[in-house]
């Protein structure tokens, strides 16, 4: 039996929102994942969710005139990017604070190609962000992203643009929550950096003839690694708990 054109168009609109969201989703958006793999994953998820979402989408598609098809396609792409960006903000905030943590413990001077990004970053920052991404999938939080996509069709129907005030307020709230969370979990390293650099600063004033900075660097790195050993577990668990709580609230 031939497939009706409304079904094909509805499935394509589903792909526009789901694919654009996965384009920014942590893990799948990594440049280390080939574009073909990301495309096939987006198509597979679209086909898996199609039986659940097609009835509602087809009702909206039937009222769209062929001359105006570009408008709902653009609206769906923007909606998917908006949803994916909200989740991506948390990992961008974590990457920012992980780079700051690497600077606090003396590892900022060794940048290398990042695993989760295309820009060079300290190895310690790459380790933290990669581990958080792996735990994101182990904790099944990617399923919460898909549930959010399904629920988004009830909040933002097909062929409707996101209200500018709603979109900006959600982005501001997500950015605020993400950076507050990242600041909270990295606070031990901030205190550590302040204390140890203050101590070595006082030593440098007392003995200006000794190059205290070069002598102190191994001790700063060692102390940072010891601190990392004790807090890295809670560091990542608190981050995942914050991301999970945000996803549950929608």
Task: Please write out the topology.
Layout lengths: L4 H18 L12 H27 L8 H35 L7 E2 L6 E2 L1 H16 L2 H15 L8 H22 L1 H20 L5 H38 L1
Antiparallel strand pairs: 1-2
Helix pairs in contact: 1-2, 1-3, 3-4, 3-6, 3-8, 5-8, 6-8, 7-8
Structure, described:
- The two termini are 39 Å apart.
- The protein has a two-stranded antiparallel sheet.
- It is 76% helix and 2% strand.
- It has one domain.
- The model has no long low-confidence stretch (mean pLDDT 80).
- It is an all-alpha fold.
**Number of separate domains:** 1
* Main sheet makeup: 2 strands, antiparallel
Q: What average pLDDT do the residues reach?
A: 80
Distance between the termini: 39 Å
Q: Given the structure, what is the number of helices? A: 8
Strand order of the largest sheet: 1-2
Given the C-alpha coordinates, what overall shape results? elongated
Question: What is the string of SSEs from the N terminus onward?
Answer: HHHEEHHHHH
Helix content: over 70%
Radius of gyration: 23 Å
Q: How many individual β-strands?
A: 2
Structural class: mainly alpha
Unreliably modeled segments: none
- Assess the beta-strand content as a share of residues: under 5%
